[in-house]
Amino acid sequence: MRAVTFTKGQIKRFAAITAAVIAAVAVGVTVAITSVGTKAQQRLVPIYRVDRNDNKIAVTFDVAWENSNTAELLSILDEFDAKATFFVTGDFCDRHAEDVELFYKAGHEIGNHSDAHPHVAQIGVNDLINDTRECSRKIKMLTGEDPTLYRAPYGEYSDNMLTTIDGMGLKTIQWDADSIDWDGASVEDIEKRIIKNTKSGSILLFHNDLQNTTMALPQILKKLKDSGYEFVTVSDLIYRDNYVIDQNGVQKAVKPSAVMDEKIEAVLAQYSAQIEASGITDEELAVAVSAIKSGDLSKIPEKLRPFAQQVINSLDAVEESSSSDGSNSSEPAKK
What we know:
By secondary structure, the chain is α/β, with parallel strands linked by helices. 46% of the residues lie in helices and 12% in strands.
């Protein structure tokens, strides 16, 4: 395709229209292109829970304080055959490197929890990148692996923060079952909150270095295991491809259409003149198509993402209405 010199605004407008039309045709959704711009200002959200029906759940710990209960946590998790994800700060890596190595050698996953635990929704992009990169560097020094997951301090996030973290190759992970252990909750309250809010695909939040958490954890894991839940790492819980994240933060698998490629080719042919005139390159178009098909908006220019998200949400609604039995045959990719 011969590239024509146009303004960035023109390229983005045509890219948005093309991507939206491709997605709409591919799943049989009718999208009113002319009215989308005023309706699509939806906020980006991280993953709070995963939509799945196999009773897999993820136990996670935010690790930013001291290391008084490391041995006990590892012993309890081992007793119940539970693989957890520990989101550690770079500062913790500096002060307690041996503990991070113990988590990793025990078969648990290590995620990035920032370097210095800042309010990430309030700092500049460069500061966020530097802080995140430094924590990842320290984790790799101790484990030999680059982390692929990120949990923001205080659970804060913004569109810019999510876009930046995703662009660094990290998925931002929140939680839907919060123990509130950091707020001095009793052993009984911690247990009640977790048991009440856990469902298939849940992400459970605890913190290390808390006595009540250590005391509550055995009973929590026992009850959940007796109820048929399986404890896996976050990377074994989430979907890496073909998914959407709804406005409640629920990550849902999207079943690829067998005729999607044919539909895309038909749309491209129909809009070939507009695409040619816009100056969109084959490479740019391929990126937009891939992002829409997978539900991953990270590679689409930031201003286009609310637009594309509306199309993806429409796709999600179609999938839900067409799946009357609620079954989900897709499996998450392994780490």
